Amino acid sequence: MNESKQMYLNMGISEKVFDLSEKIWCSLEERFKRIDAVSEYCQLKVIDAMQKNRVSEACLLGSTGYGYNDLGRDTLEKVYADIFHTEDSLVRPQITCGTHALALALMSNLRPGDELLSPVGKPYDTLENVIGIRPSKGSLAEYGITYSQVDLCKDGSFDLEGIKNAINERTRLVTIQRSKGYQTRPTLSVEKIGELISFIRSIKSDVICMVDNCYGEFTEIKEPTDAGADLVVGSLIKNPGGGLAPIGGYLAGKKECIENAASRLTSPGLAKEVGASLNALPQFYQGLFLAPSVTANALKSAIFAANIYKGLGFDVFPGPDEERYDIIQSVTLKSPEALCAFCEGIQKAAPVDGFVRPEPWDMPGYDSDVIMAAGAFISGSSIELSADGPLKEPYNVYFQGGLTYQHGKLGIMMSLQSLVDKDIVRL
Ligand SMILES: *Cc1c(COP(=O)(O)O)cnc(C)c1O
Asked: Are residues 339 and 402 in the same domain?
């Protein structure tokens, strides 16, 4: 459309970047149809769960103080349980982030003397403190809970022999991270997760199989709990919050696992009965309602980025035609200048703080400077368009989100324009 083209030009996009983007975008029509089909199914799943549980206007009101008999909170937890096909769930603004939700799941379902196993390699960075791989106050290690890890094989497959050998009489909980996070291993499909769980069960039937579901929700028709997981855990400022949830985390799974977690989050004896929802419920409900379509928009943005940058000769992960089970896209930019230019472009497309220029900084917990681009309505939200990367070889940028695909598309066009303006890419 000419009006849109004129807007792009006004916003600093050149004819060449515009033409290339149009060409790539048009070539993705069939791919996008498949994403829309998944999103359509998930949308129906969410609406069906809301209707079945009789979500009403009264559910949006919230509570204060102890939060006894909070209808909206209790109903939302039934809705989540239905979506994930589980016995129960815990969905709370008192769960401060994804790491907290995962820590809660682990600390409440493991006891001194138990062992935790990760059969898919190193877990997400922040869990190293939770587990005590990096010594930390209050870690599982301090409570006498040990940890064992089996890395994936070089080709990304499960090391079945290694996993079999690692499982012992103390193995109580297995943690499986669905998303690659910021690593370069493949993201696990629900089908693959199901195969792994079946294998683990064949060796030890009573082990708790937990899945770190961050970034994976609604990217497929099925969730890990449809493939045998006892417990899934995630953050509400990623996919399931739909960009509206201002805080929060969720756990969905077996009744006993959820009861353990609730007893730890609040207090033994109080468990799920307390925990005021304050004013968060309208955004929790509406965000969940929007989540399937927001996730689809983020996927389209990631696929667009992969196709643009692969075409320009950059390594991209996942590849442009690969199936996707999470919303993260990485691009190997090969130089610090390119990494910074990319992030500057993403920032320029932001509705909030679009006028600032991101700069690398020495972020705590990282062994090199990190640059981050984010102009989000919810601070730190990574379902909103954002990009970050450590300033070290091979200068990978990790890009995710986009509440609307139009914004994701603009962000990628701006990133490319920024690389072109700095003469790093020639069109
Ligand atoms: C984001 C994420 C986490 C941690 O969530 P925070 O909200 O950042 O604490 C854990 N695991 C995976 C795979 C993630 O993507």
From this structure: yes
Q: Is residue 379 located within the same domain as residue 267?
A: no
Mean pLDDT by 10 residues, the chain (427 residues): 93 98 97 98 98 98 97 98 98 97 98 98 94 96 98 96 98 97 89 98 98 98 98 98 98 98 98 98 98 98 98 96 96 97 98 96 82 95 95 95 97 98 97
- Does ligand 1 lie within 6 Å of residue 124's CB atom? yes
Q: Is 288 left (phi over 0), alpha (psi -120 to 50) or beta?
A: alpha
Q: Give the residue, by CA position, lying nearest to ligand 1 atom 6.
A: 98
Interval between CA 112 and ligand 1 midpoint (Å): 25
Q: What spacing in Å lies between the alpha carbon of 17 and ligand 1's midpoint?
A: 33
pTM, full prediction: 0.97
Domain boundary residue among 224, 244, 277? 277
Distance CA 139, CA 120 (A): 21
Compute the distance between CA of residue 114 and CA of residue 126 in angstroms, rounded to an integer: 21
Q: Structural domain of residue 20, as residue ranges?
A: 3-42+289-421
Q: How far is the CA of 215 from the centre of ligand 1 (A)?
A: 8
Tell me if 12 is assigned to some domain: yes
Q: Do 207 and 172 touch, CB atoms closer than 8 A?
A: yes
Side-chain-facing half-sphere of 37: CA atoms under 13 Å: 6
Judge whether 141 and 169 are in contact, CB under 8 Å. no
Number of domains making up the chain? 2
> Same domain for 171 and 74?
yes
Q: Quick check: is 49 in a domain?
A: no
Q: Is the CB of 398 under 6 A from ligand 1?
A: no
179 lines ligand 1 (CB under 6 A): yes
End position of a domain, from candidates 209, 243, 277:
277
At residue 165, the pLDDT reads 98
**Domain containing 211 — which CATH number?**
3.40.640.10
Q: Residues 78, 109: one domain?
A: yes
